[in-house]
Amino acid sequence: MDSRWGSLIVAAALAAPRPVAAQGVVELGAQATALAADPGSMFGGAYGALRTSLRTRVSVAAGVGAVEGSAAVRGELLLHFLLNPTRRTGVAPYAAGGVAVVGGPLDEGYLVLTLGLESRPGARLGWFVEAGIGGGARLAAGVRRRWFPAGWSN
Questions:
Q1: Cα(45)–Cα(66) distance, rounded to whole angstroms?
Q2: Most buried among 59, 61, 70, 142, using CB within 10 Å?
Q3: pTM of the predicted model, to two decimals?
Q4: Rounded distance, CA 124 to CA 121, Å?
Q5: Which contacts qualify for 77-85: CB closer than 8 Å, 24 or more apart?
């Protein structure tokens, strides 16, 4: 092999992106969401997320609840930005944005923007609270269980 090709292969291998330790962090939990709007609504359900990098997370939430006394469902897809993703004690802030859909007496779609606090984002279990907008003033709270890949310093 020509030494130029060998040097190029070695340089490419050294420059190749390495997996971030946060990739592969999986989160599952439960979430309750209340919306102050006309009409108001409440939902409870499941939450799941995958951290796509050290500071980003993609989450999906699905819940059942009521709008104007009638059964309804709500789904959310959010992208989160974590400020202190490895913190093992205390609380850490994050911001999230995405979309929500509601089915029931009102079939609607919404943009969602929220700010949140979560306890111990670098530990296996923690709670969270969020305030924002998305179909009205939005409050959400719940718990998250996390599974970390090998090499994560938790």
A1: 12
A2: 61
A3: 0.82
A4: 8
A5: 78/112, 78/114, 80/49, 80/56, 80/116, 81/55, 81/56, 82/51, 82/54, 82/55, 82/56, 82/57, 82/121, 83/55, 84/121, 84/122, 85/22, 85/51, 85/54, 85/55, 85/121, 85/122
